[in-house]
Amino acid sequence: MKQTVAISTFAGMLARQSGYTADFCERFVAEMFKTVADTLKDSNEVSIKGLGKFSADEAGNVEFTPDHAFAADVNAPFECFEPEPLDDDITDDMLSEEDNDPTVVKEEDIVEEPSETPTVSDDDSYVEDIEVNSIAETTEIPVETFSDTTLCPNDESADETTDPELASKALLSENVEMHENDELTVNDGADDEICTDDETECSPKRRRPLWAFVCGMAVGAVIGATATYLAIDPRAKAETNEPIRENEQEVADELGEISPIAPIDTIAVQPEIATAENTETEKTEKKDSVVYDTVTTTLAQLSRKHFGSYEFWVYIYEENRDVISNPDKVESGTRVRIPDVDKYDIDAKDRNSINKALKKSQEISGHKK
Amino acid sequence: MDNKQYITRLSRRATLNYKETQQLVASAISMITEVLSQDDMLAIPAFGTFGTEKRDEYIGVDEKSGQRMLFPPSITAKFTPGTILTKSIGNQQ
């Protein structure tokens, strides 16, 4: 969200960086641009090193040409990019069509391809395409699809396609793969079986999902049993503890002795441990909620980054008084804690919250000066 | 007016010496850069507003070679003069 920085806020930031008072900085900044305005009336052009050139025409229109260094600093996020020559076949429509990478599209195609394999496997022209296509990537897709179709047991069409014709297709695809791209090693022993023995090729395919189903069921049962055990176990322990304790108490009463406290201790300690664990987790949660950041230029910049407004830098200073001695001279690279917004009622949209922060910053600057 | 003349004139008006003025101007420019880097605007009363303008990537033709080029996106600093400034310069001239 764009935010308009007022001259008072800007002067405060400048004061913290330069060491002058905020009032002086405000007057200086006003004078700085008033000088530019007055000079434009006389000479029509003012150059300020590091900022740029202001020029005015006869109608009073003022133009600003940024200095090279200033423009580069402002354009820092995109400065690393340079104009790239384009091929003639690339058009504006192609660029505006979609900004995603073409390789991603290919990957999507590869993912979607197996679902279309039953229809593809019936088409002879598909094999012809494989022969014609010399691109390694495109040949890889058919190879995968063939292996998927032939290994697909649930599909009835797959059984129909287990004829010698399909075997020749697989062989064809394998040949294409061998000739055109040595890196493609999709075919394995299973494919060899399919090619050599047509009658038995479906039996391992049918077993495979069956085994997968059985294994899945077994794993599910184990997980379910473990979860049930874990859920019931604490209760079982609690139930077993109490009778023992009662029995011991009865025995102790019968003997006229003081009941042993060991089991009571063990029972009594358990909640303590639990509460200690809870407090530890709460502490870690609180530790996790503390946000740290590193000062690059000023606290105001950090305030803008985290709270959406420059004025709340005072709270960062308040929170880090042990690290920051002078808020106007914070060393770059200082690691500071960012306070929680609720702690100081920080709200960039609330005018009262901003005024409160401004008042506090005036107090700090007044106290300091 | 060049930078040296400007700093000299400003130092007289701000009752600072040349070096101090130069340092303070450099700090102010640095702060302006910081503000614009955050995509914020800086409003100077009776002068104008500094802001930024983002331009998306575009295809252009290199005038020298005639080669079609893809130009990257960019953020440029822009200045919008205030009404008071425009009027004061217009009246003066």
Q: Helix segment count of chain A?
A: 17
Instruction: Identify low-pLDDT runs of chain A.
Output: 101-203, 236-244, 257-276, 281-287
What's the helix-strand series of chain B?
HHEEEEEH
**If you average the pLDDT of chain B, what whole number results?**
86
Work out the strand percent of chain A.
5-15%
Task: Give the distance, in angstroms, between the N- and C-terminal Cα atoms of chain A.
Answer: 34 Å
Number of strands of chain A: 7
Strand content of chain B: 25-35%
Q: What composes the largest sheet of chain A?
A: 3 strands, antiparallel
Radius of gyration computed on alpha carbons of chain B: 18 Å
Structural class of chain A: mainly alpha
Largest sheet of chain B: 3 strands, antiparallel
Unreliable runs of chain B, pLDDT <50, ≥5 residues? none
Number of domains of chain A: 4
Number of helices of chain B: 3
The spatial strand order of the largest sheet of chain A comes to 2-3-4
The strands making up the biggest β-sheet of chain B line up spatially as 1-2-5
Give the assembly state of these chains: heterodimer
Q: How many angstroms separate the termini of chain B?
A: 17 Å
